[in-house]
Amino acid sequence: MNKQTMTILITGTNRGLGFYLADCFLEEGHTVISLIRSRNNNIKNLKKKYSLRYFIVPCNVTKEKEILRSFHKVRKITPYIDILINNAAVHLEQHKPDIQNINFSCYVPTYKVNSLAPLMIASRFLPLIKAGRTKLIVNISSEAGSIENAYRKTEYSYCMSKAALNMASKMLQNRVKDDGIKVLAIHPGWFSSDMGGVDAPVTPGQAAYRVVKTIQKKWSLSDAIYIDPDGKEMAW
User: Fold this and answer.
1) CB 88, CB 18: distance < 8 Å
2) pTM for the complete prediction?
3) Among 65, 66, 61, which residue's Cα sits nearest to residue 84?
4) In sequence order, which residues have a C-beta less than 8 Å from that of residue 206 and are 6 or more positions away?
5) d(Cα 180, Cα 20) in Å, to the nearest integer?
6) Domains, the chain, ordered by start
7) What is the pLDDT of residues 102-144, one digit of tens each?
């Protein structure tokens, strides 16, 4: 897979893991299309550095009309997508309130971004993925989505949304396997970020490099879906 240049569509590349995923793929010589809500200096710098291979398409991934509009724009850029990476995510309970103090107003927005948006993106862009050579959908999940290994007593919204994303990934794999499309739900590891905090052992750039190498392995349809940063199967 990594011997040929690819076209990769990534959501949420303004900062953190998403930005470094885009940077890693661009540095390797691939073409990257970013679906983002707004540009910042990170995006502007990537565009300046890789102007011929980096494309920016505005999109709020929680809004179906904007996803449809972005699909038509992407289709004008490329007739296919080799890898779709659903990276955009939020964690709106980082202060970790106890269940008796939860503000449930953040739950629906969390589900929209973390669970529903990846499925909506995959649904709309499926024709371009079918036309690709690599045929890979990657959902950035988390160990927080594992039910078997759940240990937290707080952060319900984030954990529940990632568990829902894992279920979506499994069901999506059931649907697209006959098209030769592989689905991965990858835990990128604990890295320093707005969501991961400052105590994490690695940087977003180091985490992204690891993820990029793992998803470029040769995957078969029978391989695990829910995996760790090195490609090892994780417990649902």
Assistant:
1) yes
2) 0.94
3) 61
4) 191
5) 28
6) 7-227 (3.40.50.720)
7) 999 999 999 999 999 999 999 999 999 999 999 999 999 999 9
